[in-house]
């Protein structure tokens, strides 16, 4: 499989997970405050209004608008990765890259957020 196809497959899986997780949160009445911010009502931030399905950033948090308000998720932190890789802090979170080639992203085994 080509590198582009592999990256697309990885992105597709992350998108499906994010959308599924968002749907679960919308259906649940309670939320965790650990890495999630929830606001009921009109979907607006800093005077700008968003429609359901829109996404926006609140600092480093990624927010998802829905018809009853919005949810924001804090950046995830990798907790384990292959020995040939290492974790690098970015402005808004972390990335795991190969030690020998830090321009190439390495797949982390697990994340916490």
From TrEMBL:
Against Gene3D superfamilies, the record matches this protein to: Beta-microseminoprotein (PSP94) domain
Q: Where in the cell is it found?
A: Secreted
**What is the predominant subcellular site recorded for this chain?**
secreted
* Keywords of the record: Disulfide bond, Secreted, Signal
Where does the signal sequence lie? 1-34
Q: What is this protein called?
A: Beta-microseminoprotein
Xref: InterPro entries:
PSP94 (IPR008735)
Per the UniProt record, the source organism is Xenoophorus captivus
Instruction: Provide the organism lineage as a comma list.
Output: Eukaryota, Metazoa, Chordata, Craniata, Vertebrata
A Pfam family it matches: PSP94
Taxonomy, superkingdom: Eukaryota
Q: State the PANTHER family in the record.
A: BETA-MICROSEMINOPROTEIN, SCO-SPONDIN-LIKE
Question: Would you identify the family this protein belongs to, as annotated?
Answer: Belongs to the beta-microseminoprotein family.
């Amino acid at each position: 499989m080509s590198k582009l196809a592999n990256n697309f497959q990885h992105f597709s899986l992350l998108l499906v997970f994010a959308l599924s997780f968002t749907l679960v949160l919308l259906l649940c009445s309670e939320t965790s405050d650990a890495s999630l911010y929830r606001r009921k009502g009109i979907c607006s931030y800093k005077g700008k209004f968003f429609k359901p399905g829109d996404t926006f950033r609140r600092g480093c948090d990624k927010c998802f608008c829905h018809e009853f308000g919005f949810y924001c998720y804090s950046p995830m932190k990798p907790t384990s990765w292959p020995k040939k890789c290492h974790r690098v802090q970015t402005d808004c979170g972390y990335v795991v890259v190969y030690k020998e080639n830090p321009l190439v992203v390495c797949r982390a085994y697990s994340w916490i957020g």
